[in-house]
Amino acid sequence: MAGERSELEGRIGYRFSDSTLLHRALCHRSWIAESAETESNERLEFLGDAVLGWVIADLAYSRFSDLGEGALTDLRKSVVNAVALAGIARGVGLGKHLLLGRGEDSGGGRDRDSILSDAFEALLGAIYLDGGATAAFDAVERLVGPHLDASPERLGALDRKSALQERLAAAGRPTPTYSAIASGPDHDKWFEVEVRCGSEVLGAGSGRSKKVAEQAAAAVALAALDDLGD
Questions:
Q1: Which pLDDT value is given to residue 1?
Q2: Were 86 and a residue from 80, 116, 150, 183 both cysteine, which residue would form a disulfide, CB within 3.0 to 4.6 Å?
Q3: In the chain, count of helices (H) and strands (E)?
Q4: Are 22 and 5 in contact (CB under 8 A)?
Q5: CATH class of the domain comprising 160-228
Q6: In whole angstroms, how far apart are CA 82 and each of 43, 86, 116?
C-alpha cells in the first residue's frame, strides 16, 4: 500500500509529510460505511474545491489578459467541472488508489466521473493542509494548468444555450425550453434533456448534470438547424 501511494505521489509531483492526509483524501464515503474509519474525503473535497477555484481564477487572470470577465468565467468552467477533473484524475491513476465500499467498487466506481473529480479535489485539499498555499498552488498549476492553456480555442463552444436562443430570436421564433429526466442514485445522477421550440423538438442531450445535458441538447439543436439551413 505504501509503495502504491508513493507511486501516486510521484505522479502528482508532491510528497506528503503527513501520510494520513493522503489516506483520508482517498476514502470515499462508501468505504467509511463498511470499515472502522470515521471520516471520508468529503471535508477535504470542500476545501480542495475552494483551493482549485482560487488558483484557476488567479492563473486565468494572469495568463489571459485579453479576455473579459465573461470569457474568463467560461475558461474557468472549462477545466473546473466533473468531466475535466475526472480526466485529470485518470491521468495520474487516481482511481486505483481509491478506498471504496464493495458495492461501489464492483459497480465501476473507480472510473466514475463524480467519484474521481471529488477525490481529485480532496487530494488538493490534503496538499493544502500538508504543504500550505504555495504547495497547493503549484499542484494545481502543474496538474490543471496545461488544460487551462488549451481551453481558449474551445470557448466558443461552451455556451451553446445562449447561441441557440440568439439564433432562434434572430429568426423570430420562440425562446427554447428545456425538459429534463433524471435517473440514478443521488450521488451519481444522469440527466436526459430535450430542447423544444414551441412544440417542435430541436435536439436532445445527456450528462451528469442538468446544465451539461442542456448544453449538449442545445449543441445538437444548433447542428440540426445548420443542416436545415435555418
A1: 58
A2: 116
A3: 11, 3
A4: yes
A5: alpha beta
A6: 17, 6, 8
Burial 175-196 (b: 16+ CB within 10 A, else e): ebeeeeeeeeeeebeebbbbbb
Q: Which residues touch 198 (CB under 8 Å, ≥6 apart)?
A: 173, 174
> Looking at domain 2-153, which CATH architecture does it have?
Orthogonal Bundle (1.10)
Say what percent of the chain tops pLDDT 90: 61
Q: Which three cell numbers stand for residue 117?
A: 473529480
Domain positions in the chain: 2-153, 160-228
Please say if the pLDDT value at position 31 is more than 90: yes
121 is catalytic: yes
Catalytic hit among 49, 130, 194, 214: 49
Structure confidence by residue, pLDDT tens digits, 45-97? 999 999 999 999 999 999 888 777 877 887 888 889 888 899 999 999 999 99
Q: Which three cell numbers stand for residue 7?
A: 507511486
What lies within 8 Å, CB to CB, of 175 at 6+ separation is 165, 168, 169
Quickly count: other Cβ atoms within 10 Å of residue 198's Cβ. 12
Note whether 127 and 136 are within 8 A (CB).
yes
- Distance from C-alpha of 190 to C-alpha of 197, rounded to nearest angstrom: 24
Is residue 34 part of the annotated active site? The answer reads no
